[in-house]
Input
Amino acid sequence: MKINVWNTILQLSKERGVGTSIIIAAIEESLRVASAKYFTHQEDVIVDFRPEKGDLRVHVSKKVVENPQNLASEIALKEARAIKADARLGDLMDIDLPSDTLGRIAAQAAKKVLFQKVRDAEQEKIFGQFAPRTGETVTGIFRRFENQTAILDVNETEVILSLRDKLPMEEFRRGDKVKAVILQVQKGSKGPQIYVSRSHPKFLLKLLELEIPEIAAGVIVIKDAVRQPGERAKVAVMTKERDIDPVGACIGVKGNRILAISKELQGEKIDVIEWSANPGGYAKAALSPAKVDKVVVLNKEGKVLQALVPKDQISLAIGKKGINVKLASWLVGWKIEIKEN
Output
């Protein structure tokens, strides 16, 4: 049978960004499935499809026998001669799908491919594009709110920013540019689900990497980072280079580097401290911006420290709603108790 679909396949491939081989394979599979309504004995359906030449043939092969036992692979001599007058016992006979049936099935198969198989291929392509980018930052255009989530458009692909993954007080208007980190890419019944976040510590780490060349180059290493999204964050850094001040390099001249990151995070305060293997020294730095006189170990096994702080630094050390001391404890990995010195 001659059909003219090659140009359609080429156009579809170009528009959807899907390889022609995927489209052809999808049409062939659809033809096999649809042909099962005609070949009703679970025959092995053979599809010869050469769209560039316009050739299409769907057929099965059966052996001509006197009394068929397996209708999937055998045909009775009488029935065979009704199709081919000179058929003989023992012949391997090709039985073609009638052209009128084939034409109708081919049209149905093409339509099915357009709405299903090509869509599946597109979704697989999207998954392949985004899954390796987990942990990267992307910039999307806010489109709408849907089921308690913000939907962003990233290169014509919808990604999901849940309410818990946006910053507490920020609001979006249609068309706003929104930067976020890709947290997870999952396959779902409705296609790939791409989840992004602005509240996760990974987003802060990527912003630091983008803004501070020494971090991107690996000269300065981020050892730990914790956040209370939209309010405060603490980042511990270190370097093996003697002539580099890791904290100063991260903060920048007049705080320009860290302020740029803080602005992206809706004014979230970011404390950059130098990492230390010593819990007491680490905790003392982690309580920044408060000035701490001394830190002592109260319970080594239970990992409890006590920070001795001047009276005028107590509220600063504790922080609004206890956030400063809480973040310092998360960063160090020890519980920190504040005591007036």
The first helix runs from residue 6 to 16. The domain at 279-341 is CATH 3.30.300.20 (GMP Synthetase; Chain A, domain 3). The CA atoms of residues 69 and 193 lie 50 Å apart. The mean pLDDT is 88.
